[in-house]
Amino acid sequence: MFCLHYHNFKIALVSIASFIFGCIFTFNILEIDNENSFNGFESALELKTDNTKLFNSLQYFLIIVVISSADNLARRKAIRETWALLAKEDELVKCYFVIGSKGLSSNKILELTKEQIKYNDLFLLSVPDDYSNLSTKVLQALVWFEREFNFNYILKCDDDSFVNVPKITKELKSRLLKIHNLYWGFFDGRAHVKRGGKWEEQEWLLCDRYLPYALGGGYVLSQPLVHFIYENADNLSLYSSEDVSVGAWLSPLNITRHHDIRFDTEYLSRGCSNEYLITHKKSPHDMYFIYKTLETTGKLCEKEVKLRKSYQYNWKVPPTLCCLRNDTIPF
Q1: Is residue 42 part of a domain?
Q2: Of 24, 178, 189, 199, which has the highest C-beta tally within 10 A?
Q3: Which of the four pLDDT bands, split at 50, 70 and 90, describes residue 44?
Q4: Pairing relation of β-strands 150-158 and 218-222?
């Protein structure tokens, strides 16, 4: 009898939490008919008219979209306690964590409920939370933010990326402000198509290399480019790598692809430079250390170090010849 009561109590608790969770995430949950189509795409907010934005009164300069997963609480905590604090200093900058929620256990939903109540910065998508759905996660997130927010730029990064928010916003507000269609990051144009491993690509038929794309550790899209993706979401192909997908989606457009060596966003970090705007592959411990160094010295690095050569992208040659690493590039 006790077990029965306990079971009923647990069901009731989960139901209450799910209700709260649903209320909190009314504007954060997307439904999709299947993983490859946006047909029948509907916002969970049924009372809102289609031609108005949910946050019409807010105008953000920069929205930071951090791709995370349900189990990566330590990474989200580290970001909230380090570089996201720099984002909070600017009321026109907002940071969200994007998580796939489909198929999560009731216990995991409860954990995320508590996390959202405390921080109000989670954005759940109705897709399984695995590598094969990263492109879907990014596409749905871009569609949602374009549909419901007013903003100038979106910065997409991973939850193991450290973002120097003040420097990013300073660049966007000064030197890059007049560029209407901006795609900003560290580009690659000679990457071979992955035929094995977790990034195995079975759908890529365009050519024998990936089209030029900004590497996924962090890149910036201006609002007109996000709007293009939003308008064409039904017809966009989804590839295994989200950064490759974004590059392919934008490939026909006459836009500014701004290659910047200050984006340390490759699959391996090139080291530490005080000039970096984003640096990838950082553990929570690394995040705290970099932030402490930045707070105490005004610099990212206790000591600058160069682990790998970088390259300047040559847009005047075929993509296979674009990216020659050499020692003359400082970082």
Answers
A1: no
A2: 189
A3: very low
A4: antiparallel
Q: Are strands 150-158 and 122-128 parallel, antiparallel or unpaired?
A: unpaired
Query: Quick check: is 327 in a domain?
Result: no
- Give 150-180 pLDDT, tens digit per residue: 999 999 999 999 999 999 999 999 988 889 9
SS3 (DSSP) at 7:
helix
CA atoms in the 13 A half-sphere facing the CB of 102: 15
DSSP state of 192: B
Number of domains in the chain: 1
Q: What is the pLDDT of residues 82-122, one digit of tens each?
A: 999 999 999 999 999 999 999 999 999 999 989 999 999 99
- Residue range of the domain that includes 259: 2-28+58-321
Here the CATH number for the domain that contains residue 76 is 3.90.550
Structure token digits, residue 273: 């430079």
Task: Look at residues 102, 95, 97, 96 and name the one whose alpha carbon lies nearest to residue 30.
Answer: 102
More confident: 262 or 4: 262
Contact 97, 119 (CB under 8 A): no
User: Alpha-carbon distance 233 to 28, whole Å?
Assistant: 18
Residue 330 lies in a domain: no
**Does some domain include residue 163?**
yes
**Percent of the chain clearing pLDDT 70 (strictly above):** 83
Sequence-separated contacts (24+) of 126-130 with Cβ below 8 Å: 126/29, 126/30, 126/31, 126/32, 126/100, 126/101, 126/102, 127/32, 127/35, 127/100, 127/101, 127/102, 128/100, 128/102, 128/103, 129/69, 129/70, 129/99, 129/100, 129/101, 129/102, 129/103, 129/104, 130/100
